[in-house]
Amino acid sequence: MIDLRKLAEPGSIEETLVEKIDxxxxxxxxxxxxxxxxxxxxxxxxxxxxxxxxxxxxxxEIVETGARLELGVMTLxxxxxxxxxxxxxxxxxxxxxxxxxxxxxxATLMENNIRFKPIGRIEGLDPSVQRELRxxxxxxxxxxxxxxxxxxxxxxxxxxxDTVNRIMSLLRxxxxxxxxxxxxxxxxHLYTANVDDPDLLIRTSGELRxxxxxxxxxxxxxxxxxxxxxxxxRKQHLFEAIIDFQSRERRYGGVEPGDSEMFVEQDETADSxxxxxxxxxxxx
Length: 284
Ligand code: FPP
What we know:
Blueprint: H1 4-7, H2 13-20, E1 29-33, H3 37-42, H4 48-68, E2 73-80, H5 88-111, E3 115-119, H6 127-140, E4 147-154, H7 156-173, H8 183-187, E5 200-203, E6 222-225, H9 235-247, H10 268-281
Helix pairs in contact: 2-9, 4-5, 5-6
This protein binds farnesyl diphosphate (FPP).
Farnesyl diphosphate binds next to helix 3, helix 4 and helix 5.
């Protein structure tokens, strides 16, 4: 049962926003491209890494709010396969902040019944980072609330390539090299196997790009872009994104139920296309 008192102070702007949310139609999976840390720091004449440090406060508040809203899944894009191109000091600081976050926030994750899972090419990260990630994942494995996925050394294309290779080796092992695979089977071998696809993708700092994030999984996601820079992103902005999401008409390539009366019968191809869309949205 969602406890509204834990979501907003009486009389606050957050309370006004929460009242506008239909709690029966929440997104099940919210994915976030956290952007604008560097610009946030620059506007304050601070080094870029201070933007990342400040961004952790947003991570804490948004994940905790997601848990209190009883969302199913939140996936945060923390480090892409392309981010290795950043200055060595910035990469090292990001990894240090990640380890610090995991150590300090484990108690909060436990208190909020949050299950933590890293996704991406985790084996490419420093062993000390891998150890902290494994520890947090193991400690929270039995929690039954929000699944908090953090994308690290992640790329959408890399994930698709890794999935193809995983499937090929599986089929070779089973001597089924001529098998024909379908979308559901492919989805079951992604890093996000058994997790609903995001229905809401939030991007901060105003950029209109998907930046190689969850390319397969966002096929039907509603996209909410805000100019707010990630270190300034607070629960108020998450509520605004959800309100925006709920104002959208979601058709998955179909038509409005009322409009379908214009057609005598749905052809088989449209039916099977709808089934594919339904599979992407349902629990696998
Ligand atoms: C993009 O801002 C942000 C990142 C590349 C990293 C996100 C990391 C954090 C919020 C902190 C670490 C996270 C955890 C979970 C510990 P940018 O640097 O590209 O900003 P810019 O576009 O303004 O330069």
